[in-house]
Description:
Blueprint: H1 6-12, H2 53-66, E1 70-74, H3 77-84, E2 93-97, H4 102-110, E3 118-122, H5 127-133, E4 138-144, H6 156-165, E5 169-173, E6 191-195, E7 209-213, H7 216-229, H8 235-267, E8 274-276, H9 286-292, E9 299-303, H10 307-316, E10 321-322, E11 332-335, H11 346-352, E12 358-362, H12 368-380
Parallel strand pairs: 2-3, 2-4, 4-5, 5-6, 10-11
Antiparallel strand pairs: 1-7, 6-7, 8-9, 9-12, 11-12
Helix pairs in contact: 1-8, 2-8, 10-12
Amino acid sequence: xxxxxxxxxxxxxGQHPDPLTGAVNVPIYLSSTFELTGIGSxxxxxxxxxxxxxxxxxxxxxxxxxxxxxxxxxxxxxxxISALVTMLRAGDHVVCSRDVYAGTVRLFDQIVSGYGIEIxxxxxxxxxxVEAAMKPNTKLVHIETPSNPLMVLTDIAAISKIAHAHGAxxxxxxxxxxxxxxxxxxxxxxxxxxxxxxxxxxxxDGLGGALIGSKPEHKDRFLLVQKAAGGVMSPFECFLVxxxxxxxxxxxxxxxxxGRAVAEFLSTHPKVTKLAYPGLKSHxxxxxxxxxxxxxxxxxxxxxxxxxxxxxxxxxxKIFLNAESLGGVESLASHSATTTHGSVSEEVRRSMGINEGxxxxxxxxxxxxxxxxxxxxxxxxx
Length: 382
């Protein structure tokens, strides 16, 4: 455990001055290969797929921020999940949160299941349902909390106890809250996953993913996957995430202040039929959010009556951008059924509880009064 508080870690973990030049910022080592010092000896690096000084710094920072033993950076969030499931073998069973990002469902159902791995989707907010789903061959419980886009919470500590009692590990997609607001490993989880594209980068200018492990065998496995399968984050993308991490605590404070204000506004608007934001006391899992999170974040979703109303809303917004993704400094609004969950069937979306009027919001760091005014005039157009 680091003796430093989170904001200090964000600025300094993995980001010490360059020993060669004294540069305060981590250099971008755009080199595919490195000179060896002899036969079988090097200065710590030989080929950038196996390791790169810039990536090493980012991976050190990621491990420190999540309280893990090792961090591993990949090209995208989906590449990180792909690396995660390399721990599994034919005949293994995976329990996964029911209403996860549809890209995860697509990977699991259309690729991973083809390797003889059984995927079972469960409402992981229901501890009894998770317990009932566990089998002798269950190796992994993968959860998103809050979930995308319904903002359903899963009790990480309770799920971890259930999984560990059955000899399974727990992986948590922590993208929506970031390590600034949630620490899954401290709650008992084994592995944390991120799309670094989102809050960790924070500026919508790069793709990336990460896994943070808690055991030596995680480090060995994920290093092997990086070296054998590739899919590693480029040095320039690593630099962008390192830059983003430095301001993450400050950005998240503004994101959350704005998120709470927007949620309060939407909660009383007559045209909003449902609102999902765990920071409202009316949310059924508000107490769990207070218990396991360090804040409520700036992600939320709400329902209008129809796809047509959603289309009119998305046409009318001015500050908010009609765009997929989240976690950047700009506010985004997206139609869940045709963006994040467009890759799954209508039947699957219905089973998840995602209807045609569902809008997901990623609240940025603009002035909250401007954001509320924009939403007000867009809802007036519905």
